[in-house]
Amino acid sequence: MEFQFTAEDQQFRQEVRAFIKANWGESGSGGGGEVDDLETHQRTRAFEKRLAERGWLTMAWPNEYGGQGASHIRQMIFREECAYFGAPGSGGQGINMIGPCIMVHGTEDQKQRFLPPIASAEVMWCQGFSEPGSGSDLASLQTRATLDGDDYVINGQKIWTSGAQFADYIHVLARTDPDAPKHRGITYFLLDMKSPGISVRPIVQMHGRSGFNETFFDNVRVPRSNVLGEANRGWYAAATTLDFERSGVSVFAAGKKLLEELTDFCRDTTIGGVRLAEKPGVRAQLAELAIEHEVGRLIAYRVSWMQGAGKIPNYEASMSKLYGSELRQRLAQAGVNMMGLYGGLWEGTRWAPLDAKLQVSYVGSVSSTIAAGTSEVQRNIMATRGLGLPRG
Ligand SMILES: Cc1cc2nc3c(=O)[nH]c(=O)nc-3n(C[C@H](O)[C@H](O)[C@H](O)COP(=O)(O)OP(=O)(O)OC[C@H]3O[C@@H](n4cnc5c(N)ncnc54)[C@H](O)[C@@H]3O)c2cc1C
Questions:
Q1: What is 43-92 written as a DSSP string?
Q2: Domains observed in the chain
Q3: Ligand 1: which residue has its CA nearest to atom 30?
């Protein structure tokens, strides 16, 4: 099998790479994941606007909604380059999750209102699905929405809401029919974060950053016209959002860069009188990780190809998410172990190798097998929908 990109795609990759190097830098990801400080957030938004001006941010979207009608493969190449260099553009809930979901389930009016501002990077979205008592069993959620005239009124609490402290909009699931079976009484809302009654409280994670938050709803009014899909059928639109959330090449591209930096470190560093690159165990581990990053990339390419063919990836997206999040942990664990005692030094410390990127990733990546559905949940999806096994 010959598997390669077209000459035009290769040329596009070079163009993106040159732009990012010249305008963002090539330091790669800091290993920490989500942004929690205002300065980085503002720098990120400003750069996204520049990408949007070039038409790159949502290039696979239709022209009428702010895209270019480009292939999904080309969009994936763009995201791969962004993630490799740690530049914004490879993610974002608006671009990756709610935008594509609105395209599938939204009314024409919703598409016109919500999609162009995402494409031009004017707005940022966050996701209000999880609650203190509802994560894996999301359909048990308790946040209530009741109809009052032409508005719904929302009351309740969400948790782990990534980016809520900066977001302009939130996509929220709330129970609208408490008497119906749990999957059939949920409605999906598109909500302005400036609506009176919403408050956000950051949660500090163990790597010291606050990527996510608690979000409270106290009599928050949302117009009926902001219901995505049918009332009480929000569960099915939410499943589409999750399938999009679990897709993506970014984790493999960012990991590849970090692995290259680790490999250079091992080439240049002698610990206990032996150069790391000469240790058989280190060499074998680096080789294994290189193979795994290539495998992950191909799994992500398959998901992208499916999107391009108009399919919604399901267990295939779970494969990608599971493999990527566990690989992120394997890379970080291998890296800090190779560094010996230096692997315990945190950022800001003079002797921390590679600016402590691997240490931060080691701590930060613990949550990656929980976020967007735990590894157990992904394996259950693959078992039932991929392998056709009965529910356990
Ligand atoms: C970094 C991060 C960012 C996040 N961002 C967001 C966000 O922006 N918006 C949002 O809505 N949510 C977000 N989440 C929440 C995330 O979706 C949930 O944490 C996740 O779905 C797990 O739910 P839970 O934490 O309630 O754990 P639980 O569901 O209580 O799970 C606890 C344990 O039980 C296991 N388990 C549960 N059910 C089963 C089962 N059926 N079979 C086998 N094992 C099972 C789980 O795998 C896990 O090990 C984020 C989480 C993290 C860590």
A1: HHHHHHHHHHHTT-TTTTS-GGGT-----HHHHHHHHHHHHHTT-TTS--
A2: 7-91 (1.10.540.10), 126-232 (2.40.110.10), 246-386 (1.20.140.10)
A3: 135
**Is 291:239 a contact under the CB 8 Å cutoff?**
no
Select from 262, 94, 103 the least CA-distant residue to 171: 94
pTM over 0.85: yes
Distance CA 14, CA 104 (A): 32
What's the CA gap between 136 and 138, in Å, rounded? 5
Q: Mind listing the pLDDT tens digit for each residue in 341-381?
A: 999 999 889 999 999 999 999 998 999 999 999 999 999 99
245 annotated active-site: yes
Tokens standing for 239?
């499943």
Ligand 1 center to 23 CA (angstroms): 37
Per-residue exposure over 171-201, b if at least 16 CB sit within 10 Å of its own CB, e if not: bbbbbbeeeeebbebbbbbbbebeeeebebe
In this predicted structure, what is the pLDDT of residue 31? Answer: 56
Q: Out of 245, 261, 292, 316, pick the active-site residue.
A: 245
Query: By C-alpha distance, which of 79, 99, 11 is closest to 320?
Result: 79
Q: Using H for helix, E for strand and C for coil, what is the string for 4-15?
A: CCCHHHHHHHHH
CA dist 352 to 18, 264, 334, Å?
Answer: 30, 15, 16
* Helix%, strand%, coil% for the chain, nearest 5: 50, 15, 35
Which numbered atom of ligand 1 lies nearest the CA of 34? 1
Which atom of ligand 1 is closest in space to residue 133's alpha carbon? 26
Backbone angles phi, psi at 122, to 5 degrees: -80, -25
Helix (H/G/I), strand (E/B), else coil: 329: helix
Q: What are 130-139's pLDDT values in tens digits?
A: 999 999 999 9
Ligand 1 pocket (Cβ < 6 Å) reads 126-130, 135-136, 160-162, 212, 367, 370-374, 376-377, 380
Spatial contact of 276 and 269, defined as CB atoms under 8 Å apart: yes
Share of the chain above pLDDT 70, in %: 98
